[in-house]
Design a protein that fits this description.
mainly alpha; elongated; 155 residues; single chain; ENTR1
């Protein structure tokens, strides 16, 4: 019985040592598990932050793309309008060139008429100037007479 008891105690000691070893392993594994959980949570947060950053960049790029498309559309419309205007100007230029000789005759006729009118105005202005000078001389004479009368009345 003593031998059996000693044997059982020895087994119990071995089992206690084994149990403590297993408990140590368990604690180490639990600690490692906790560290892995924290690490995974941090990685998950980092991934989530990266995903949000990528989404923001995508939204920004989408806005830029829409803006660029709108600008391209506006530029295409403006280009089409300018092409139409250019065509109209070319047509008008050709019309002006073809009508230039006829216009030149009209311009010459208008210049001749303007010259005649200018000569008439010069002639009329000369007589008006002569009348004005004559009127000024008359006014000077009247002024001189008034001065003389004023002197005579003082004397």
């Amino acid at each position: 019985l003593k031998e059996e008891n000693a044997s059982l105690r020895s087994k119990i000691n071995k089992l206690q040592i084994f149990s403590e070893t297993q408990a140590d392993k368990m604690r180490k594994l639990e600690k490692k598990l906790e560290e892995n959980k924290i690490k995974e949570e941090k990685e998950a947060q980092d991934l989530e932050a990266m995903v949000q950053h990528v989404e923001q960049n995508l939204q920004l790029m989408t806005k830029r793309a829409v803006k660029a498309e709108n600008n391209a559309t506006k530029l295409k419309q403006e280009n089409a309008l300018l092409q139409v205007q250019l065509k109209n100007y070319k047509t008008e230029n050709e019309a002006l060139r073809s009508g230039q000789s006829a216009s030149l005759a009209v311009v010459k006729q208008n210049a001749d008429l303007a010259l005649q009118n200018l000569l008439t105005v010069i002639t009329n202005s000369r007589s008006s100037i002569k009348q004005l000078v004559s009127g000024a001389e008359s006014l000077q004479l009247v002024a001189d007479l008034l001065k003389s009368i004023d002197r005579i009345s003082e004397v």
